Amino acid sequence: MTEIFYFDSKFRLRIKVLRFTSEIHKRSEAEWSGKLALRKSKGISISFWTLQSGELKLHVNDFTPLFHILPLQFPRLFEDPFMRTKLFLTLFFLLCSLLSIAQTAQQPPLYLGTAWYPEQWPQSRWDADLELMQKAGIRFVRVGEFAWSTMEPAEGKFDLDWLDRAVTMAQKRGIFVVLGTPSAAPPAWLTQKYPDTLRVEEDGRRAVHGNRQHFSFTSPRYRELAHRMAAEMAKRFGHNPNVIGWQIDNEYATYSFDDYTRAQFQQWLKAKYNTLDNLNNHWTTAYWSQTYFTWDEIPIPIGWNNPALMLDWKRFCSDVYRAYQKTQLDAIHQYADSRQWITHNFMGWFDGFDHYTVSADLDLASWDNYIGKGHLNPWTNGIVHDLTRGFKRKNFWVMETQPGNVNWQDVNNSLDKGEVREMAWHAIGHGSDAVSYWQWRSALGGQEQYHGTLAGPDGKPVPLYDEVAQIGSEFAKVGDILRGTSPVSEIAFLHSYDDRWSINFQRHHKEFDPIGYMNSFYTPLRKLTDSIDVVSPAAPLESYKLVVAPGLNLISAAEAKHLLDFVQNGGHLMLGARSGLKDEYNALNTTRQPGPLAQALGAHVEQYYVLDQPVPVTGDIGGGDAKIWAEYLKADVPDVRVLARYGKSNGWLDDQPAIVTRAVGKGQITYVGTWLSDPQMTALARWLIQSDKITQRFTDVPEGVEINRRDATGNSPREIFIVINHTKESKHIKLPSPMREQLRGNAPVSELELAARDVAIFAK
Ligand code: GLA
Ligand code: GLA
Question: Is this structure's pTM higher than 0.85?
């Protein structure tokens, strides 16, 4: 980023921030001619600027007075007394702006937020809402993501004045703004005039207006209209100091099955396979006369189809969502300051597209954490936080979470008193830097009248408001020690959409849910540690001691090499059942499982069996049961160690190896050929912690208590522990060494009684 200082025709000092040097060249002659341009001097770092009604506002990171630079570079300025006065007045004004903005624009380390829909309410009400938010410690609102019909009430007629007023009113209350682009809900005039932008369902019906997400994600016309809307927003708010970031669209979810999408899919396949022979070969289309002779014969899979085609359709949809998103990213990048980050609010495990692909162009990952029915399970929910953190491999945001209850389950129970706060700290513990409630106050009409809120239809706080206000005051109190910290892990779980899709297309046992299988490994390991990463198999692995890959059903040669490098260099790779059964085209491997890793393992899967009832397993990790799936493993070399064997069952499995392990290079590979019962998984987790020397800072942690660690490296390295009692009884916590509890502000303690659903934050 380059900053240029210059004076306009009225000799007002101005600053232009340009992202690319090439832009300066492009503009320098045309735009800057006749103006004085000063280059940025060392020591000044301006992160953004705005010009509103002739008022210059700067946001600074560091400040060094400009006085030193100006006279040196432009001595003639100082010869003219009028110019000199003008200049010093300008500088005086500049200094005042710098100081005031530096004070007010201080960004909180932890953001409490809410989804606010000013377009649904009279403007006379807005400040009362914002005041209530401010009192609860809310520091940001997400605004605009469904407001297209208010922002562009007729084609090409934009009205953003109301939004500008809302942003300014929020700013006065110390509340920052995340702007949502409104493309998840196109206005009626748009779909009426351009019906081709409407999505087509699997059965050929076109969507109608009145719900949301009724657009087609491939439609070029829709993308153009959404781009223009986003560009108008970015022109207006791209330099607004109170706007900190953007959310593109809302929860991408739907596909369209129209002819244009089908043609796009065929083009995509052509680019990938080049020739039909190649495609037919990888897809084994001689099977059931599926052979394609021209590209336009290839269908969009509806229902049961060739698994290779089905997998490529999912990959195509991932690329489509990335491209759909890109048109809006481009609009914002063109007009907005680079300090405004861009995110999308993902939906946890949702697998409609590959989230690694779609998040590649984003600055920040965020997700909408809903429990729906029932209550928080910290392990199955925690892994989803870790999954989201893994999209960008850095801290993330919880962009939406439920204030008590949702409206879309068959039973919309409320979370218990204290559970919302418990969930907020659980998110922070897993590396979120924000927790935002959907929504502030329910719209009086519309589909979500029964959803939980923080303010009732009367505009007054609901009982949960006080609990959220407590979170607000706690974020303010302890935020600073968490600034710049994130979870740092010795263990990574590998997760990939290709593998989940492939298994879900053909589960073979209805209960073989790849997420459930992943959870069966994660839960016991996470209970014994304080941080686990969940990353794509393509992620760098060298910082980990242990990599657990429960579900790599497809293993390509490149992926195998990446994993083997990790092992050769001293890592421990643990594979789960069904690993390496297929290649990256979703065709069966001609090498027995785990395919390209079988040689290194020194063992292979002789045969797999679906289990209609549990099978006993015994060995170094104690005795227990295997369920759902069992692979009969066979050692090919003598140095393979058998960790567990099946007991008497179907005859084929009797006494055969169920888990094997082998030292390879400086590391180790372990293969688990089954789905172990919980106590045995716990025993396996203990074995891993011990043999891989995973650091256990807290020991004897009571059941239901979660230890989360966020570290800061660099100048002030520190470890912060967020300890949460997820149970309904109080629990006794023993600390590894005396630490200060930050919420209670006491002297160092070495143990603490933690009440039901309560949280403690420890730092040395
Ligand atoms: C039927 C079909 C076969 C095959 C088998 C599988 O019998 O005729 O082509 O699909 O089922 O069980
Ligand atoms: C999703 C959506 C929101 C709202 C909530 C309700 O997260 O993004 O607009 O519908 O669900 O739970």
Answer: yes
